[in-house]
Amino acid sequence: MISWRKHYRKALVAIGLLLSTSASIYAQDAATGDPKNGETLFKTNCAACHALDKQLVGPSLGGVVERLEKEHGLGKDWLHKWIVNSMDVVNSGDKYANEVFEKFNKIPMSPFPNLSEKDIDDILAYTSNPPAPEPAKPAAAPEGAKQANEELAQESKADLQSKLIIGSLLAVVGLLIWVLLRLRGLIKLQRSGNLDPERARKVEHLYNRFNLVGNGLMTVLAVVALYGVWNWLMWIGVYKGYKPEQPIYFSHKIHVGENNIDCQLCHSGAKYGKVSEIPSMNVCMNCHRGISEYKGAYIEPGKTKEFYDGEIQKIYQATGWDAGSQSYTGKTKPVQWVRIHNMPDFVFFNHAQHVVAGEKAIIDSHNKKNPNDKIDVVCKACHGKVDEMNVVQMANDFTMGWCIECHRTTEVDMTNGYNKEYFAKLHDKLKKQYPKSQGKITVDAIGGLECGKCHY
Questions:
Q1: Residue 176: what pLDDT?
Q2: pTM, 2 dp
């Protein structure tokens, strides 16, 4: 019995030691925090105003826990209070809190009552020991490679066609020159009186025999020439594939494709006005005030991180932003962007009408006609898959025929409240007029082909 009590006591001591060890380990983990989770929380809540390695709107936070402990004798409990509500700490009369408040122009830090103590510990762990960044991966996107191969194939095909046309024209020109030279020789012989009558009769017979062929050939050449002139005139102002070099390199693939930035965040006029508008540099600075270097995983072939960093610096030069002092100098350099899409002055086009009223109808129509190339954003129907373009180019012809074809094939969404009410009588009339349409009405049926809709 005594032996049993002895072992029982040892078991209790072991259990107690185990529990205390587990508690201490848990407490240590809780105090230390999870840097990986802290990185996510930092980017979500703090990155707009803070960075680890430099001052932005607020001070740099790299090693802030150790720095405050060493320089001001403040521990994590002070940082917890400051992060939850900085103004409570300032109003309490805390000396260091008021120094920071004065230094940063009395701009209060946003309170974060939603963050738990563990969340804050994770953020502080990230500031003390940030995880190593993942190495940048070069672009090996199959979509990009496919697009590049298609462009090369189209260029090769166009080059071959051009060579065949030029070769044929040179052959015809050579034949005509030979005929002219022969005729010129005969004329000289006739004038000199040395032309053999028999030879002259043979030439006249040959001429009469092939006169019809010659006239037919001249007619064909005249038609081809007229078609060439007409085709050239028809393609004036059509620049499909046009992608000019811009003063500041801007990759839509990085901004839209990799970072999922909505088109209308920058092109806000597309939803509410006629013109989509080129965003001002202030729109760029909304993000790049806190993003002074590229840290993305995607890098375009032929480009480097240093190249992207240099382009960001061009934004700062254009806006007069001093990243060191986090202030504007007033010395700006306006950017002269090269316009890609530009409608003629006599054409009226309203972006809002297509982006808002026609959004569902346009997307459905495009996906129905292109089942292997579906889109999810209405902008892509006209501008192509911009989220896959490093350099934006004109993706379509934007000719009158191209627009009319779209109006003839795009069905109006008669299920939404506005159209159902506005076109109620017209809808019933059209269903009777076009019984085979099965109630499906296209844009041309509601005035989409009227001249005055698009031309002043």
A1: 76
A2: 0.65
